[in-house]
Design a protein that fits this description.
- By secondary structure, the protein is mostly helical.
- It has a domain of 31 residues.
- α2 packs antiparallel against α3.
- The N and C termini lie far apart (83 Å).
- The mean pLDDT is 78.
Length: 86
């Protein structure tokens, strides 16, 4: 069977304001994706490190700790103090 030839896209004059969604407010909107991904990745690394320590694999735990340090994440997750009750 012969290959079909595709038609090149039509050339159009697009308004630049329409391409980016309209008016520029000058405000940067934060991108939650990378932060959420970084937090999830750091939490997974903490669990991995804890498992290595549990089974005595100190050299692997040190490698994971180095990755956490590279990310700028603490080795242990900050746990809030429990509420005191009377």
């Amino acid at each position: 069977m012969a290959a079909r030839k595709s038609t090149p896209p039509a050339e159009t004059d697009l308004d630049e304001d329409l391409l980016d969604g309209g008016e520029d407010t000058g405000e940067e909107t934060p991108d939650p994706g990378p932060t959420a991904m970084k937090d999830a990745y750091a939490e997974a690394l903490r669990r991995e490190r804890a498992d290595y320590l549990r089974y005595g694999r100190k050299e692997r735990a040190a490698d994971v700790a180095a990755e956490l340090k590279r990310l700028g994440a603490p080795l242990e997750r900050a746990v809030p103090a429990p509420n005191e009750t009377a």
